[in-house]
Amino acid sequence: MARCVGRGELAPFSAAETTRLADALGTRSVAAGAPLMHGSDHVDAIGLILSGDVELTRRHGVRRVVLQVLHAGDVYGDIPFLCDMAPPFSARALTDVEVIEISGEHFWALLDQRPEVARRFLFSVASRLQRMQQRLLELMSGDLRHQVAALLLDETGGGRGVVPLTQTVIAEMLGAGRSNVNRALKELEGEGGLELGYRRIEVVDPRVLRDVLR
Question: Mind listing the pLDDT tens digit for each residue in 26-36?
Fold first, then answer.
């Protein structure tokens, strides 16, 4: 099984550390659609995603809001665990996933014994919070086209690449109608920024998307 550590410096564990954790703690396979963490439940373990996608969601009345989609190398539950508070969201497997569940006892021991891991984890938390703040600022400004461009660039790290989100999930994350999101994507494709296929969105020229944000 190939293990990925996520988006560079944002990943809290290196590839070597991830392998050691998998060997020491084992892994858990979760089918698409199954819950990984329930909102309002006490968090006593941190999840490290080895493969697959996980969505963080919250109920707003009868509507389900997608807050974020996590990928291989990302973690969930760490901030609620560190703050000793119930998470304000639930985590659900968007695809089949494989995760490492790190108990609180093992996590604290790891940080105590491995200062370099503690520093990396601290930097990861700070970077992810800054990234989330930047995303909120982008989503609060501009029209839907602006918001779509900002989200796609965020998902690809500002470069070329396939976006691991469906149009439905993008619409849920932006609180917009799917048809309106599709229209914005088609416009960006017509300008040469994207290539759209069946359940596939690829950023082929990020300069087009960055121009939208100016």
Answer: 999 999 999 99
Give the separation between CA 15 and CA 4, rounded to whole angstroms.
Answer: 7
Q: Extract the runs of DSSP E, i.e. beta strands, from the chain.
A: 28-30, 35-37, 45-51, 54-60, 63-70, 75-76, 90-93, 97-103, 161-163, 194-197, 200-203
Distance CA 98, CA 200 (A): 23
The tokens describing 157, both together, are 């790290």
The answer to whether 75 touches 131, Cβ cutoff 8 Å, is no
Q: Report DSSP letters for 119-145, one per residue.
A: HHHHHHHHHHHHHHHHHHHHHHSS-HH
C-beta of residue 78 within 8 angstroms of C-beta of residue 46 = yes
Q: How far is it, in rounded angstroms, from Cα 73 to Cα 52? A: 10
Q: What is the CA radius of gyration of the chain?
A: 18
- Sequence-distant (6+) residues with CB within 8 A of 181 are 144, 148, 167, 170, 171, 174
Size of the chain, expressed as the number of residues it contains: 214
- Cβ neighbors of 197 (< 8 A, separation 6 or more) are none
At residue 124, φ and ψ (nearest 5 deg) are -65, -45
Token look-up 């006490």 returns 42
Give residue-wise pLDDT tens across range 75-109. Answer: 999 999 998 888 888 999 999 999 999 999 999 99
